[in-house]
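Our working data are protein records whose layout never changes between entries. An example says more than a description, so a record of this kind follows.
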Amino acid sequence: MKKIFQKGIALPVEKEKELVVLVADNTMKESINSLLLNRQTSLGISIARDKFDIFTHPGHDPGCCKNGVDFLMPLSSRYKYALMLFDYEGSGSEDKSVEEIEEKIKVKLRQNGWADRSEVIAIYPELENWVWSNSPCLSGIIGWRNQPVGLQQWLLNEGFIKNLQQIKPQRPKEALEAVLQKIKKPRSSSIYKEIAEKVSVNGCQDRAFNKFVETLRLWFER
């Protein structure tokens, strides 16, 4: 199989595919892969498994933000669409708004082979914001079992949320890390993978996730 090498990663070039996704790390890759493989009906999309590829940028969030265009540029003739996702926090561009960052990168993608076939999503403040939902299965996935109080009540007691009606903590990553530390469970990409597989995608309040779904539906609606 013929390949090209980009940032030390072997990329397939044997045939044109529908979608290339560039993400910041393996946790994000596991989450997006699970959504694309297992939640197509819920997302309202249809794309064959062999028609998309997901790559992680070796420079993580700042690498996507600053050099993601260079990574994707040589792939513009091999894929119909390109999607880039990274965390806003840690991107190195926090002096700009989410919208400003996304538009700046998207303009560069248009100018470098992708025309109107790409989208950029900066997740505010980070991927962990997608973890928190009012799904009844979330506690079980995280491992919050046999605790004296419910997960939401514990988040309230610890100051991560202001009231029990608040679904997403202001500091979602710190909240998740604190929960896992409390129950002595290591943080791993398998948690994110299971959440992506099982938690309902309906009614999500996260801007970035909704943009992700809307983009996929625009390109691959069933």
